Model the fold of this input.
Amino acid sequence: MRCRAVCRLIRAALHLLEGVLTVSLVYPFCGEERRSALKQRWSLRLLHQLGIDLKVRGAAGQGGLVVANHISFIDILAINAALPATFVAKDDIRRWPLIGWLCRHSGTLFLERGSRSAAQKARAHLTGYLQAGHRVAFFPEGTTTRGDRVLPFHSALFQSAIDSGVDVQPVSLRYEGAQSKRSEIPAYVDDITLLRCLWSIVSVERTRVHVNMLPAIASREVDRRHLSSHAHRAIARHLGHSSGG
Done:
C-alpha cells in the first residue's frame, strides 16, 4: 500500500511539472478552445494518477456560471475534467507549491478574504468573462465540508450571471470508496494539511468522484438571492440532503 501511494505521488508530481511546462510553453500560442482541451485532458490524467475515477452525468452548455458543493481541492480537477472552466479561488491558493503557480498562470480569478472591494472587483471580472462566452466556476459555500451536507450559499457572485445574462449550471459532487459508499477521505477540512489529505487519497485503492450536471437555471427576472437559493436546493436535493440555503 505504501509503495503504491509513493508511486502515485511521484507520477502526480511529474504530471504537475508537465503542467508547468505546458502553461509556460504552449498556452501562450493557443486559443481558448485549445487551452480548455489541454486543461481537461491534464485534469483527467492527474485524477487517474491519484487513483481517482471520474463519473460524469448530465450535460452542460458552452458557457455559463458553474456552481458546486465543495469538499476537496480535488473538486477543481473533477470539474475541469468534466467541463473545463475558469475558477474563482481563495487568494491563499496563490502560495501553494506548484499548484498556486499553475492557477496564477492559467487564468484563475483570485478572491481576497474579507474585502468588499475585492469581491466587487472579482464579480466585475466574472461578468466580463461570462459576457465573452467563457465558462466560470466557483464554490458558493465558501469553504469545504465532508460531503455530508451542503452549507448555505453566499449569493454575491451570482450577480455576475444576472449582469451577463447567462444561466447558472448547478453541479453536485460526491466521492465514493469501496462498495460505492460515500467517502470522506478526499475532504480537505478542519486542521488537515494539504500533504496529509493528499497522502490519504493516494493510500486507498480507488476513489470515485461523481460529477452530476443538473438542469441549468435561468438568471433572467430573478435576484441573486433567489438564484443562489435555487441552485442550493437543486444540489442539496440531488445529494439527498435537506436544503436550508
